[in-house]
């Protein structure tokens, strides 16, 4: 292990043998990450709950959907998604569906994204959760789905998980797979 911190990240260096070629050995760095969930929360008017948030690593503000780390032990991904929707959006949903399970950057990290669709939305109390750090400055807003889809296709909405969620939702709508 090269690095491990108390927040999220570990970095390790592995000695790798190319499959079928044990003589071809090389080193690779891997960023260890517990994974994350994202929630595309769509209301009855086809609006999506969004957040505008600054991300230090890329030094940009992004339009995002509620999301959070899978850092609560063995909590199932859906339960993490429900918690994050409550904490970040003060919402709960009666209808949940997994949209996607993706690897955001498989060449450098073991992180997995579990992306959910939440519908049947209603207000929920945040509980004892307090928005801190970057989250304290997040701006929440509702975006009409069609405008968000245009933003993704035009490159104005460019963070991976929201783009994936929006595109998956559009495909499911076109296929008639959303009841």
Structure summary:
This protein is of the alpha+beta class and 179 residues long. The protein has helices at 77-89, 145-154, 160-175; strands spanning 3-4, 10-18, 21-32, 36-41, 47-55, 60-64, 67-69, 91-102, 113-123, 139-144.
Detail the topology: elements first, then pairings.
Elements: E1 3-4, E2 10-18, E3 21-32, E4 36-41, E5 47-55, E6 60-64, E7 67-69, H1 77-89, E8 91-102, E9 113-123, E10 139-144, H2 145-154, H3 160-175
Parallel strand pairs: 4-9
Antiparallel strand pairs: 1-2, 2-3, 4-7, 5-6, 5-10, 8-9
Helix pairs in contact: 2-3
Textual characterization of the structure:
- This protein has 179 residues and is an alpha+beta fold.
- It has 2 domains: 1-32, no CATH class; 34-175, Nucleoside Triphosphate Pyrophosphohydrolase.
- The protein has 3 helices and 10 strands.
- The protein has helices at residues 77-89, 145-154, 160-175, and strands at 3-4, 10-18, 21-32, 36-41, 47-55, 60-64, 67-69, 91-102, 113-123, 139-144.
- Strand 5 (47-55) and strand 6 form a beta hairpin.
- The termini are far apart.
């Amino acid at each position: 292990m090269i690095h491990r911190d108390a927040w999220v990240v570990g970095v390790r260096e592995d000695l790798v043998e190319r499959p079928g070629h044990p003589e071809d050995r090389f080193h690779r760095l891997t960023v260890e990450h517990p994974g994350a969930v994202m929630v595309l929360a769509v209301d009855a008017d086809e609006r999506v709950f969004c957040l505008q948030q600054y991300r230090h690593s890329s030094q940009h503000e992004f339009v995002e959907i509620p999301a959070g780390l899978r850092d609560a032990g063995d909590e199932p991904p859906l339960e993490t998604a429900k918690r994050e929707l409550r904490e970040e959006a003060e919402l709960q949903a009666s209808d949940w569906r997994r949209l996607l399970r993706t690897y955001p950057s498989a060449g450098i990290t073991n992180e997995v994204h579990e992306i959910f669709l939440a519908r049947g939305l209603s207000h929920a109390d945040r509980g004892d959760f307090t928005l801190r750090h970057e989250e304290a400055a997040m701006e929440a807003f509702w975006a009409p789905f069609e405008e968000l889809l245009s933003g993704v296709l035009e490159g104005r909405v460019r963070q991976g998980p929201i783009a994936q969620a929006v595109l998956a939702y559009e495909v499911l709508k076109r296929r008639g797979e959303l009841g």
